[in-house]
Design brief:
This protein is of the alpha/beta class. It is built from 10 helices and 6 strands, in the order βαααααβαβαβαβαβα. About 45% of the residues lie in helices and about 10% in strands. Strand 5, helix 9 and strand 6 form a beta-alpha-beta unit. Helix 3 packs across helix 4. The relative contact order is 0.19.
Length: about 220
């Protein structure tokens, strides 16, 4: 397999489902929210739309169910409630293999930039504790930093700007189809890692440049370079 890091200067890395095995908790929190609100939907849909800003996902689920969204204020209120449920049931669980993946990128001297659709402060605060020395201060793009979340390319374009590089000098590491779409729309070589129930075909459809079946498999590959 070719060296996908050749000529690369930075890796733009998603958070939930990539460095944290947290998507199962997010899905359960959304399931609880939508059940209480009477909004129909499959909790596993969250995996397909993961990467979107939380309030955008809430609005989209209402649009799918009823043909109309909710106000910006109501979406933010519902997302705050979902976050409360997450903290009640969820926790930061580092993704198996993520530490090796990140260390391999560091050894290759690629700058690591976190690019996440999350705005949950407690999750973001834990990154430097769980992965010390991996992300430099300020090397992150969150839901609070963009006008348009994934699948819009804006988050990854901001990541490029932080690193001060061109699209061809970066790779994106994602676990969600919409995140892959965002990375490709930004013109960046995009790696998909299937860390959840989303089938490989969904990443192929979005044009992922390379797909790994698990984070340990991706880490193994990077360590072999």
């Amino acid at each position: 397999m070719d060296d996908i890091l050749k000529g690369k200067k930075a890796a733009l890395i998603d958070m939930d489902g990539v460095i944290y095995d947290s998507m199962k908790f997010h899905a359960e929190a959304f399931r609880r929210l939508f059940e209480e609100e009477g909004v129909p939907g499959n909790p596993e849909d969250v995996y397909l739309y993961e990467g979107m800003r939380g309030a955008d996902l809430v609005n989209m689920m209402y649009m799918r169910a009823y043909g109309h969204g909710v106000s910006k204020e109501r979406a933010a209120e519902l997302y705050e409630l979902k976050s409360k449920y997450f903290y009640e049931i969820g926790r930061n669980e580092p993704m198996a293999g993520a530490d090796r993946m990140l260390d391999a990128l560091k050894k290759r001297e690629l700058r690591r930039v976190l690019v996440t659709g999350s705005a949950q402060a407690k999750l973001l605060e834990g990154v430097n504790r769980d992965y010390p020395g991996i992300f430099l201060p300020g090397d992150r793009v969150t839901a609070l930093d963009v006008t348009n979340g994934k699948p819009d390319p804006e988050p990854y374009l901001k990541g490029l700007a932080i690193a001060g590089i061109q699209p061809q000098e970066a790779i994106v590491i994602e676990n969600a189809p919409l995140g892959v779409r965002a990375g490709k729309a930004a013109g960046i070589f995009t790696v998909a890692v299937t860390t959840g129930p989303v089938p490989r075909e969904a990443f192929e459809k979005e044009g992922a440049d390379i797909i790994f079946p698990s984070m340990p498999a991706f880490a193994d590959y990077l360590e072999s370079l």
